[in-house]
Each structure stands twice: as structure tokens, then as C-alpha cells.
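Sequence in, structure out. First:
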Amino acid sequence: MPSKSPATQDQYHHYIPRFMLRQFQVDAGKKLTKKERQRAYRKAKKNPSLSSENVLFYDLDTGILDTRPIQKAYGEKNLYKDIRNTDNFNHVEEKLGRLENEAAKLIDKMKASISSGTDVHMTRKELGEFRKFLFLLHYRLDYKSKKEDNPDNAPVRDWYKKRKQDKGLKDDNDLFIDGMEYFLQYPHHVLVAEGEAIERRLGGPEEVSRMKRTRVDPDINYYALQYAFGANTRFMGIWEAADDAEFILGSNSFGMFEGSGFGGGYLHRIYTLSPRMVIALRDVHCPSDDALIAPFINSDLLNVPMRYPVIRYADFRKDEYRTTMECKSALEQYRTSEAAQKDMYTFKVTKLTKAQTQALNNAILACVHADDKGSVTFASKSCMLDTLRAFNRSDRWYYEEAGRRYSALLKPCLLYPPILASTLRVVL
């Protein structure tokens, strides 16, 4: 029987990119080159016990801590495979790979700035593509909730049905691939401009919010509207962990909500990028821990200072416009120009205290659930032990039940080395 071609073979696709999982690698030691990683990947694919790239993996369902090969952690078989595209089943994964490569370069730049204690600089184009990368981290992680019959999706159900009918999509997985394909096709500024145009036609942000709560118009481009809403309602901050602490990684730590206020909206979306770095997207109405707004916000992270980035425009002058409305309209048009993509953004890195680092980890632990195939990964057992102890001491009432999910993790963090998945049956 002839072997399958690479295009038709089953593949394990990660919803947390491998380059990010390597930040949590056990006994990382010498950094492997690309060729060395590829060689190690081929060996481990045949025999997972030979993997040289592993992460600590605590499964909430089984209560077992083990080490897992990165190539078999945080992913699913054929997640991005588009069976409708007979010319190239893997075109979505290939486009996503290119976006992830650019994001990895930018993350390396952020890490270098953290190490040197300097600001982070990026162009509008770099920032836009990075925001798209963050958006898709959450979108693909959350894809199962996009199912048409999910009660939470009632307002958008008619839109889903029409999209499936118009595009010839057979099921919810086809719809997920369709969404990924759409977002990967266009640059960030084009997606935002399209969404903003739809918002204006609908009558503004309040009308959009009302529509999303009741019934999404099946005839609009909801993909673009959804994307622009996320881009325009939150601004980005780069957070560094305290020197004697580390950030942990939950299976849903990408776009996880934290805090509430302003009519029930969430204050933050959190993205764990490494044990030392987290990206936070904060509500644009809350640039700081303003005493006037604090009473209306329920968040353990509002006291983390965040400021908007400083922007140096390549070819735009605000003082050329007489009114704020004129300036805003001109700026919206300018943002889509080629010149605007060279605008320079400067971000200051915010270093968290140990209490703030712990508060963020607490939020991650509370949001991971066993019934969602939940899991937690961390870089060092000593820091994880501190995290668990602080979590159990928290006075948040809803943390008490969540703490029971991690009771089995305390002992291996205290006493034992991680158990290799390949030898688990022997150990038991």
C-alpha cells in the first residue's frame, strides 16, 4: 500500500505554539538550533520518550503531574486541516506559521528589552500583526464554544447559519477554519477599518453592543466587527514577573478574562508568553488605578499601572486640524495608509510585585477547569509551590473550590521529581 503524502497525513497541530512552550521547557540547557530541533522532533515523533523538549504538565482531570514532549502538548490532531481545499489541506497552518514566526521575533525583542531594562519599540505594522497573533491565540483556543448550538451563542446563531449556507460549510469545524482563513488573509489595519465601517453603518458602539446581546444581523461581516471591537476597546501592556516569582501557563491562558466593571464588561485579557512575561490587554477606559473608577471595578490587577504607548507618527500632525472630530476622522483614514505602518510605538515594561504576580497566577488557576480538559504548566516546582500556597491563602471565596483541583499537585512540588509520561504505568 502506498504511503500517504505529507499533505494528506494526520498532523498534530498546536493551539499553543511550540516556540512559546519552549519558554517553559524542563532542563532547557543549551538552546537548540532550528536544524537540531527538527532532528529531535523527528526522533520524538517516532518515540516520545526520546524527546529532548519537554514541559511539566499537570492534568486537572487525573490529578497527575508528568512531563510531556512539547510536540504532543497543547494541541489536537488536524486542528487547522482544511479538507475543503484539495489543492492544499494545510494552507491555514502555513499562513499561521508565518504569522507566528513574526510574532516570535517580536517576543524575542520584548524579552531582550526586559533583560536590559529598556523600553520596547515597534512599528504600527509590527504591533498590528502582533495584536492579530494575540487575537488568534484566543480564537483558536476558544473555537469549540463557536458551536452553533451553544446557548451562549444564541445572538449570533442566525449569522452562523447564514455563513455556513453562503460558504458551503458543513459543520462547526468548517466554520472555525473559515474564520481562521479570513483573519489570516488580511492585515490588521484592513480588518479594523472594515469593522469600524460596519460599526458606523450600524449607528455606533452602543448599537453594536445592543445587537451583540440580542441578534447579530446575518448580513453583516461579523468577523470584521468582532475583530475591530477587540482591537479598539483594549490597549496593550507588557508585564514582567517579580524577581522571585514566575508566571504560570494555564490551558486557557490566552485571552483569559480578569476583572469586571463598566456594565459587566471584563477589565483585562491575559496572555502568558513566558515565565517572565505576560501581555495584558486592558479596557481603554481604565488606563490606571484611578481613585474615581476603582469603586466600580472588581479586579485584583487594577493596581498594576498601565499607560498608553507613546506614538511617533511618520506622516501625521494633530495640530493641522481645528476640531477633535476632524482630527479623529483624519487619523482613522491615515491609519490605513502605507506611511502609517511606519509609525513608531514605545511601550514601557511594567514590573509586577510578587503580590501582583501571584494575583495574576491566582486568576489563571481559578479559570482552569477539569471538564475543559484543563491543565497547568510551569517552569519550576519551587515557584509553583509558592503559587499554590498563596492561592490557598487567598480570601476570595470562589478560590476555595478551585483550590481543591490542585491539592494533588502540592505533593510532587514538595517531594518528587516529575514523572515521565512514558514510565507512568511502571511508577504506578
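Second:
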Amino acid sequence: MVWFWLGWEAWLMARGITLNLQPVPNLESRYKTWSATPHAAPGSSKLPYAYCMPTDCSQVQSQTPWTKLAWGQDSARRDVVLKLVNSDTDEYQVYCRLLQSSEEHCLSSCCGVLRPVAIFETQYNFSFVVMPRWGGLHQLSDLNTVAQVMQFMRCTSRDIHQSNMLVNCYTPNALFSTHALKIAAEHRCAGDVHYCLMDFDISLCASLDTALDSFKRPSNEATMGAPSYHPPDVSLGEPFYNPFAYDVACLGNIYRVFFTCLVSQIPLLAPLFDKMTTHAIPHRFTALEAADFIEYVYAGLSDTTLNMPVAVVPEWESCTNTDLYWSKTAPEFAVQWSSYRTPGQTPMAQFLDRFCNISVGWFMLTFLRRRLRI
């Protein structure tokens, strides 16, 4: 892809973006490769930009961006990422709406997604989306206090998979080094750490007046993306599903896999997990309701609790056994919040579940339900 970016280097420079490209030693000047990032301008850490941490000189190395991505700096020497996006896709419309929201609202606020700062349209069927450069999340198991976990949940209570999430801190020329991990650990202890969602390759752009609680899409779309955290919304041959409710459940499954270990310190996580992932979809939290509940939980935590150390260990069984985390709460608490617990399956759902487990049962049920649209 470097040859593609070389062809657009001058065009982008005329628009204030300098790509991190440098000539290859002992070759003609037209041959270039990705270079170590120049030092970012002081003060570029103000949101929506991230902290550019100093790099150990012994570990400086050029890093090749992923396909369709390029690294550069804007006219104020702030590190940015450019992404190639087809102009006739929902992903492009998502970025346009996010850019519009950036113009309508304060850019220095974190809204849980990485909003673009510019979109450069071309005469072809693609555009350059310019976003502030943030750092990778590394591992959720690196979160080591209650406060760090709660801040992560407060920022990500919008969407989906941890590999699509970033943190507002990066070491540009030592992305996967021990030094980078140390810097990231120090930043998580800071009061201004933020996390966000950054990838919209698999996205759907609905009209702004869409009723989120009744929106339906063909169920085959639910199989797209990473399946690890998918809820069973289409496991019984359903012809349609609600993608907004589906996304909430995906995030809820991430929370309960990684944060079940915190329920003994934060009992309110148990009702949160169930309301985000319940199979009774009409009673499932919306993204806004989940975010509000997380803020309610956070507001009730003392400094002592927030500073408690934790060891985040994935517990995959929690996705199928809710007793795993409810058993960590006091009996009177479980009774008090019983209305939030996921109800048992109906007899019909149990029958269909058993039918789907026999040979070709799921395919037969899916065919019938799609033909009858039920």
C-alpha cells in the first residue's frame, strides 16, 4: 500500500497532512518507506487527541500501518491516522455523521467513539477519513483496580469488541514493546484516561428517526463480526433481529466474561450483566440505559472501593451460567434485584432449543421461520 500513499502524498500535504514517509537510503528519492513518527506537538493530548508518550530511544522502530491506514501529522504537528473508506458505504455515512456531531458538540469531550476531525473527498469512489491517533487497548486483564475497570465500562458502554477499542495514550514507535506496556499501565492510573470504539467496517447507518426498540434486520447479518460475544438472539431460527439490542448484548457479554470477578466488590454488576444480555429482548437495556446504570453504579462507589486491587481473569462460563456471578452477591441483594435477573426459557423456547440440537434441526427450523416470517 505504500505506493498508493506515495501517489497521494502531495495531494494530502496541500490539505495540511504530512504522511510519515521517508526516503529509503541508497535508493532514488521516489522510493520511500514508513518512518518513525516525528515528535508530536506539546499539548496535542487535549481531547480528541491522545497523549503521545516519549519512547525509549533504544526501542525506536518504524511501524507499518495496517492495510487502508496511514500515519501522519496535521499542520499543528498532531499525530493523526488516515483511513481509506469507500464513499458508497454505510461506514462512510457513519463517519460523516460523527464529523457532523463533532461540529455540533464539543470536540474535547469523549463520546465513546473516535470521531474524525476531517474527511477529504476525492474524485474517485473513496475518501480519506482523518482521525486523531490513539493507542491500542492491549489486554483487559491489564486493568488492575476497580477504578480502572469502572472507567473502562463508563467509556465503552456504547459498543462491541475489545479489539476495536482504543485508549487515549500511545507510544508511536514502540507499539508492542515492554516500554509501551509500562507507559499504558501508568496512564490507566491517571484521572483523564479515556477509551473509545474506532472501527465501523461492519456497520449499519439507519435514519436518525429510527425507533431503536423495534428496528429489525435479516438475521443472517447477525453472524458477521467476531462471534465470541454474540448473544443467542438468532439461535432458534429467527428470521429477523434487532441489531441495536444485539450490540448491547455483545458488550454485556464482554463485561461479564472479564468482570464477573468484581461482582463480590460491586454487586450491582450482576443486575447490569443480566439486563444487558437477557434473552427477553424487549426487556434488555438500551445502550443509553446501560450507560446510565453504569454511571449510577460508579456514583455509589467509595474511594476505598475504587482503589481496591483486582485480578481480571476471563470467566467464559458466565455467559451461560448467570448463577456464577449472582452467587457472589448477598441473598438479600439477590432478592432485592430479582426483577433484573434473566428469566428462564419458556416451554416453547426449550422445545425449539432441543429441536435445533438434533441433526439438521436448526436448518429446518430456520427455513420454516424465514418462509413464514415468524
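Remark: The chain has a mean pLDDT of 83.
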